[in-house]
Amino acid sequence: MKQEVKIPQATTKRLPLYYRFLKNFATEGKKRISSQELSDAMKIDSATIRRDFSYFGALGKKGYGYDVQYLLEFFRQTLDQDEAMNVALIGVGNLGNGLLKYNFQKNHNTRIVVAFDTKAPLEGTTISDIPVFHPDRLEEMYEEFGAELAILTVSSRSAQMMTDRLVKINAKGILNFTPVRLSVPDTIKVMNIDLSVELQALTYLVRNSGK
Questions:
Q1: CB count in 10 Å sphere of residue 122
Q2: Structure pTM?
Q3: What's the gap between Cα 196 and its chain centre?
Q4: Most confident of the ranges 14-23, 107-116, 128-137
């Protein structure tokens, strides 16, 4: 993602959602939309949408709203939708298997091209049409398949060790599904997805709604 200003991570996470909903509006033949229309569709406060958009300058006009095609093109370029990003999956357990089967089918610019698992043979095997190798070949195959990002679905005890190896081969980013908070240099971007924490938060919201 090409940015000249510091964008908050919460805003960054919403950018792909804006792009997705704008594609839906374009498919429906909408020419222009207001922040309120986008808010109603996405269930995000319109003030939040306007604030997110303000980081990128004047994307709309007061009294007119937003031009759908202009926004669509803007977010397509901002998210580098024309440039494919190869991903390596590290850890092919239950979650890893699910990710291999899904392989970001709706994201044409992101795809898992290689995976690593301790149960895989050195010479490699294939799961869901993706080559899977033993982690002993991580450095070699990560480079050979042109991976830039890594998805980490290994055990907690292996998370930092695998991360250290990714740092040494200049991985650009890590999507971390482990509960471990990884130690990385500033050159590597990390996004953490802790499913147990998200579920606990949802449980709290459900139990405390209406109180």
A1: 8
A2: 0.72
A3: 19
A4: 128-137
